[in-house]
Write a structure and sequence with these properties.
Elements: H1 2-5, H2 22-42, H3 45-48, E1 53-55, H4 61-71, E2 73-75, E3 107-109, H5 115-137, H6 140-145, H7 155-172, H8 177-204, H9 212-220, H10 230-234, E4 238-246, E5 252-260, H11 263-294, H12 298-308, H13 314-322, H14 326-338, H15 341-358
Antiparallel strand pairs: 1-5, 2-3, 4-5
Helix pairs in contact: 2-5, 2-11, 5-8, 7-15, 8-11, 8-14, 12-13, 12-14, 13-15
């Protein structure tokens, strides 16, 4: 299985320079990695076997498998809770057209043809805000840090880089709002995307995803024979398929077959995890947006900068914060996450002095 993940393991590497935060990374690192990993695993026959195996006497097995994979299988939803071995052979499996009885409504299952593609596309959408931010950020933070992230640096080089950074802020103070707002927009896009992906997945699974996790939890707390497994309703392991063909005289012949869908054992686990994960990510991202709104309060920004620049004196931080708009504060906060704490303390002290001198 190592060869499957080898091509995407680089997504989890730790960047030497941080241009976002942990909540942002939940989207483009963890979520994207999981979606791509599942997308790749679904295609691996050596781990899960053939995606579909159909049983019928008259039709060639390979032809039947291909036909049922393309044209979908079906089950009978109202028989999902029927007693297996007594009323039905498998959950939802019976003849929908029994003479003298009411015709059962059938449900076709076509989603499994597209699971790999949909997971891959969802991974790309989770990376989109990261792509936009990297493009808009343009390496600005990397250019400003300039070797000041290491405590071991030549004194002359440190003084030169530090002076350049102080000069930059002195000349460009109050000109960083657009830079910050672009990042805030990407944070909002992360939240919008995860909500959209929940409803996209729900539509993909026939409006069964939004309640899927809750139903599985309720089922796990009941007696095993008390009701049908909701995972079997959404991801049937056995389904029916009808092959239509012409007989020797041109008459129509219908051949019913049972199809085993071993891949659904894996699919049901993917989507139960995604149900919990999407909700968790949505809640954490919403909390992050509340935090972002709070940063528009000058007092809160000053408190955060004090916490981040723990070696600098309170007076220095307050003096710099009073002259900062939200864009300046955001860039200073980003620098605090990437610069050596001692160098950052010296930088803030010199910046405070230069700003007082300019005033």
């Amino acid at each position: 299985m190592h060869d499957v993940f080898d091509s995407i393991r680089g997504l989890l590497k730790v960047d030497s320079l941080t241009v976002d935060n942990k909540i942002f990374q939940m989207h483009y690192k963890i979520t994207m990695f999981f979606l791509l990993a599942c997308s790749l695993l679904v295609t691996q026959k050596q781990y899960f076997g053939d995606p579909i195996d159909c049983i019928v006497d008259v039709v060639d097995p390979d032809v039947m498998d291909t036909y049922c994979w393309i044209h979908a299988t079906f089950t009978i939803p109202e028989l999902n809770d029927a007693a297996v071995g007594h009323e039905v052979a498998h959950p939802g499996i019976a003849n929908p057209n029994i003479p003298g009885k009411e015709k059962h409504e059938i449900k076709h299952h076509k989603y499994y043809q597209w699971v790999t593609l949909v997971l891959a596309l969802q991974a790309l959408f989770f990376y989109l805000p990261r792509y936009l931010w990297k493009m808009w950020e343009g390496g600005k933070l990397k250019m400003l840090v300039m070797q000041l992230d290491s405590p071991i640096v030549d004194d002359d080089v440190k003084k030169e880089r530090k002076d350049m950074l102080v000069t930059y802020f002195k000349l460009n103070m109050n000109n960083h709002n657009i830079y910050a707002f672009k990042y805030f927009l990407c944070e909002a896009l992360n939240f919008i995307n995860v909500i959209v992906q929940i409803y996209v997945t729900d539509a993909f699974l026939g409006n069964a995803f939004t309640t899927y996790g809750r139903e599985v939890i309720e089922f796990s707390q009941q007696e095993i024979t008390s009701r049908g497994d909701p995972m079997d309703r959404v991801f049937p392991k056995v389904a029916k398929c009808t092959f239509h063909m012409s007989g020797p005289s041109g008459s129509k012949e219908n051949h019913d077959g049972l199809c085993v869908l071993p891949l659904n054992i894996f699919n049901e686990k993917i989507y139960i995890f995604l149900w919990f994960w999407f909700i968790t990510v949505a809640v954490i991202t919403a909390v992050g947006l509340v935090y972002r709104v709070a940063t528009f309060l000058p007092g809160f920004r000053q408190l955060l900068l004090k916490t981040k620049s723990r070696l600098a004196s309170s007076g220095t931080v307050e003096a710099v914060s009073r002259r900062c708009m939200i864009g300046d504060w955001f860039l200073l906060y980003q620098l605090a996450k990437n610069m050596d704490p001692l160098i950052y303390k010296e930088f803030l002290s010199e910046l405070s002095y230069k700003l007082d001198e300019r005033r």
